[in-house]
Amino acid sequence: MLKIGDLIINSKCMLAPMAGVADTPFRLISREAGCVFAFSEMISAKALAYRSKNTLRMLPANPVDRPIGLQLLGDDEASLLKAVDISNSLGFELLDFNAACPVGKVTAKGAGSALLKEPSKLKQLLRVMVRGSNAPVTLKIRSGWDENSVNARDVALLAQDEGVKALFIHGRTRMQGYRGSVDYEVIKEVKQALQIPVIASGDCLSPQLVKKMFDETGCDGVAVARGALGNPWIFRDIEEYLKGGVIPERPSLDETADTMTRHLDLCIAEKGGKRGVMLFRKHLVWYIRGLAEIRRYKERAFKAVARQEMIGLIEEIRVSEKKIIIPPY
Ligand SMILES: Cc1cc2nc3c(=O)[nH]c(=O)nc-3n(C[C@H](O)[C@H](O)[C@H](O)COP(=O)(O)O)c2cc1C
Predict the structure, then answer these.
(1) Could you tell me the pTM of the whole model?
(2) Is the peptide bond preceding residue 67 cis, with omega within 30 degrees of 0?
(3) Are 143 and 170 in contact (CB under 8 A)?
(4) Structurally, what CATH architecture does the domain formed by 253-318 represent?
(5) Which residues of 11-49 are buried (b: 16+ CB within 10 A; e: fewer)?
(6) Pairing mode, if any, of strands 13-15 and 221-224?
(7) Considering 101, 204, 219, 267, which one is annotated as catalytic?
């Protein structure tokens, strides 16, 4: 269990925000496989404030897709205020602020992880969010901008002072991207300094690595990102492993094919036939990464535009000789 402000989450493990990936179909599939709490894709406060149609479409709207955290990206108070108002009106359970995004286009404008270099501006933005939001406000950070400016502890303390109710930390610097392994030490330091819950992120790619994250850092919870790609079962597997030290068997080929079909149909329900199939392409490739013939399937998946083509592929995979295609952890 995790308690973030007044919000109680019945799991210590959640789905991390993933722009371009963790959309409604992906979140629903994750929930069906055991995920209790999920994040939206990152939403630009500016675009939301302007009520951009594409951005409004990205807002979680399915009542089954709850409890959910909305993550905002922003660098100015006025649009953040408007975005917070919209978020209030939709009643999301949690509101997160992104000071972690490493993408150049974002940091060039002073948003995302660039805010780690401007703690006083970050403080001001958090103040606006905490004052305005009905839901508990949280902050997502990286360990620092670069190896010479690792300031996660100071930024985390500042956020706590501003009334932030939990801290999410990806234990890598902005400059590091995804290179090297996650820095458990910096997460532990942040955890020891804070009274609010610390939810750790980075390399939580298997139940064993999640346990390692808890053991090494003393964190209160973990957010899983890449480990859930093509493997929504990771949420169930983590729960079981943390409870009893045993990882359930990998899903059978039939179960995997059924899940792929369901995921495809959720994509189609969300985006319509052709766009839904196109949206599902990358997910199919993640599901089948344990197959030797992956390149051949990938080529075909990326040409598919009709549901029937994608279903044909899934059914071919279902009758392939392997019993299991989801690789062991
Ligand atoms: C495709 C992708 C998109 C991501 N988008 C976001 C995002 O919008 N907001 C955010 O805070 N983190 C984002 N992240 C970072 C993850 O939430 C997470 O912190 C990071 O991937 C480390 O966790 P992992 O090792 O379990 O993948 C993204 C990661 C991936 C792989």
Answers:
(1) 0.97
(2) yes
(3) yes
(4) Orthogonal Bundle (1.10)
(5) bbbbbbbbbebbbbbbbbbbbbbbbbbbbbbbbbbbbbb
(6) parallel
(7) 101
The whole-angstrom separation of Cα 319 and Cα 311 is 12
Does residue 187's CB lie within 6 angstroms of at least one atom of ligand 1? no
C-alpha 101 to ligand 1 mean position (Å): 8
Ligand 1 pocket residue status of 224, Cβ below 6 Å: yes
Tell me where in the chain the CATH 1.10.1200.80 domain(s) lie.
Answer: 253-318
Considering only CA atoms, which of 250, 203, 246 is closest in space to residue 230?
Answer: 250
Indicate if 204 belongs to the active site.
Answer: no
Residue 102 three-state SS: coil
Q: 2-244: which CATH architecture?
A: Alpha-Beta Barrel (3.20)
Tell me, using a 6 A CB cutoff, whether residue 112 lines ligand 1: no
Q: What is the pLDDT of residues 223-281, one digit of tens each?
A: 999 999 999 999 999 999 999 999 999 999 999 999 999 999 999 999 999 999 999 99
Instruction: Return residue ranges of the chain for CATH 3.20.20.70.
Output: 2-244
Instruction: Please give the distance, rounded to the nearest whole angstrom, from the Cα atom of residue 102 to the centre of ligand 1.
Output: 10
Looking up tokens 């819950």 gives 197
Which atom of ligand 1 approaches the CA of 98 most closely? Answer: 11
